[in-house]
Amino acid sequence: MDVIGLRRELKRRGRKMMPEQWVSPCGNQCTNKYSALTQIPWRVFCKKGCSSEEETWEECLEYCNLMCYKDPVLKDQQWSAYIDRSPGAASYSAECFHACVSGCGYKFDVKKEKVDEVTPNGRPMPAPVEKPRPQPEEPIDMSEDILGTSA
Fold this sequence. Notes:
This protein is mainly α and 151 residues long.
């Protein structure tokens, strides 16, 4: 609704609009679902699902998948996916995806049960690989360095 349309609506109603009327119903649902202070990032991703330009439920899911799961920036360097990740760590990518899908569900009036069943197509970030420590080439004889006395 543009400013002129908003003024007409206010004039027609003859009263002030309430703050919850300023945002789309989809955005309000995201605000209600992710209302805790610690959930603000997920509220943002939910609203991105609401405001996406996709025209179908399936396209919206793909939008969420692309937004929340990134491929490595450098070929064959999986760690470089962190450089271009929207939400950050792998667990955050999953939270981002589910929040965005919630927004898509609100946008396309999809039942909660169906929304909850959706899984991402993105690859989760691999666990960091711990490299083995290099072994010394020659064993070191420590017996000469240790005192032969007891306490």
